[in-house]
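[Help] Beginner question about ligand-bound structures

Sorry if this is basic. My supervisor gave me a protein sequence and a SMILES string for magnesium ion and asked me to "get the holo structure". I don't really know what that means in practice or what format the answer should be in. Inputs are pasted below exactly as I got them.
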Amino acid sequence: MTAEIIDGKVIAADLRARVADEVARVKREHNLVPGLAVVLVGNDPASEVYVRSKHTQTQAAGMASFEHKLPTDVSQQDLLTLVAKLNRDPAVHGILVQLPLPKGLNTEAVINAIDPAKDVDGLHPNNAGRLAGGFEALSPCTPLGCIILTKSVHASLEGMNAIVIGRSNLVGRPLVQLLLNENATVTIAHSRSRDLPGLVRKADLVYAAVGRPEMVRGDWLKPGATVIDVGINRIPKEDGKTRLVGDVAYQEALAVAGAITPVPGGVGQMTVACLLVNTLRAACAIAGLPKPAV
Ligand SMILES: Nc1nc(=O)c2c([nH]1)NC[C@@H]1CN(c3ccc(C(=O)N[C@@H](CCC(=O)O)C(=O)O)cc3)C=[N+]21
Ligand SMILES: [Mg+2]
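Answer (accepted):
No worries, everyone starts somewhere. Holo just means with the ligand present. The predicted complex, written as structure tokens, is below.
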């Protein structure tokens, strides 16, 4: 048996096309151009790649993109001043501060300073709390993408056993909430969990979001399981270059899983596409328009 490969590139392209249609419609009918501001502090090469990809795709969807690059040694006060300015800017409907921030900056204070209505990362306690309470909220992009990828395999997740490995605010915790909303039965595992292979073996849906290269092995999986690999780990190759691997041992998992996302070409693609979705939704909500069709 070999697993179905869940093609994040195709699914993300389809989602971006639907966002672009809705962007064109709100522009035509309401003269509204959704705008996304991305703030990058420092010059981490991987972050620069993501930020450039967000910029390109935002513009390709017909939205406005505002990039703000700040030096590594920017002060907390200057960063908060920029966030306050973006909060007031009527052309900006979404604000994303790329994480992690350099040492010395207070991430929590920066997130708290973002207007919750513009918090397209879904990290502000107002949005995180609303999501946890089962209320409508802007939800983090990577977990939203994970749900869409899962639903490309299973129309309904009701009653399925899901395991989320990892409990970060950006991925694990919000993903648990979204899975609960789908009526899945959810186990939350992490670096301190006892007998992780045993827990994974019970799961119909496996979400690996720990940031440890190829940690989840093929023989941990229940045959036929759907595997969503959130990991993006750069590991050195013999020739001195690097290659990307996920948190799942992909080749091993292919032989056991029913369906699996590749890295790259899986969840990462969806993260950016869902950021466009959130920006469109935020823009419509701020403008007092009905919810968009995406
Ligand atoms: N506030 C905040 N929000 C984020 O959503 C956020 C963040 N900070 N910090 C960094 C992580 C990482 N992230 C990715 C986005 C796109 C790809 C992506 O497009 N990946 C492609 C290609 C990857 C490559 O080739 O480097 C793929 O998997 O196919 C990956 C990872 C968003 N993040
Ligand atoms: Mg952890």
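A couple of things worth pointing out: The chain has a mean pLDDT of 97. The chain is about 40% helix and 15% strand. Feel free to follow up in the thread.
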